[in-house]
Amino acid sequence: MVQRKSPKQLSKFISYVLGRKPGEFGLVPDDNGYIKIKEFLKAICEEDGFRYVRRSHIDEILISLTNPPIEIHNNHIRAKFRDGLPNQKQTQNLPKLLYTCARRKAYPEVLVKGIFPMDFKKVILSSTPDMAERIGKRKDQFPVLLTVQTQKSIQQGIIFYEAGETLFIAESIHTGCFTGPPLPKQKTPVIKPETQVEQALSSFPGSFIVEKHNIDDRRKAYQQKRKRKTVAWKKEQKGKKHKSDRERPPWRRDH
Predict the structure, then answer these.
(1) Inter-CA distances, 227 with 87, 219, 230, 233, Å
(2) Does the reported pTM lie above 0.85?
(3) Which of 36, 152, 153, 240 to pair with 253, CA 20 to 30 A apart?
(4) Are residues 165 and 220 in the same domain?
């Protein structure tokens, strides 16, 4: 069983992540040093010994410590002391390849339109595929790993900024500047057994499959035929004299 840290011990770890090495945990603070609490918890829960941490433990730090080293604003968290945060500056000293991930459902659209930010203002990339997958799994259990060619991207006008020792950010990545796995083949539609039987019967000469529209057509034809017979009978009866209108025979005239 994991031994839980005291609020003071946990606060030291959190202030280290937020104020010194967020990139080590696949996190990129915004311009004011804030990170979404939801994303922050996902990141630290990947670390052994901190998988138990929830929002309630952060609230406990704020309540129990006299001068907590962290602060919260609108579901965002940051360290009060951020002197150790790396500056997000433009860089040209890039590795040839960078890596990022896309959601499986969004991947077909990414291939057509390019890579755009998901839940952050910019696209987060890593110099290592392992870190890219770690970040990607926070959005999708089985993310699609994409490989970005930095030189092609720079030629297309993309600017990269440093966001840590292994992390970089960019506004977007154009199509043609990255590669990924091929799309899965679409499954062949399964033919139902009834359809197979119908196809088999239709292959024999003289065969006929009774379908609803055939039954309806037959019923309509029968009703029309019956109507024609009724009309013909009425015309025939109209031409005949009624029994009371017939001339009486001579042998009955005297009676």
Answers:
(1) 92, 12, 5, 10
(2) no
(3) 240
(4) no
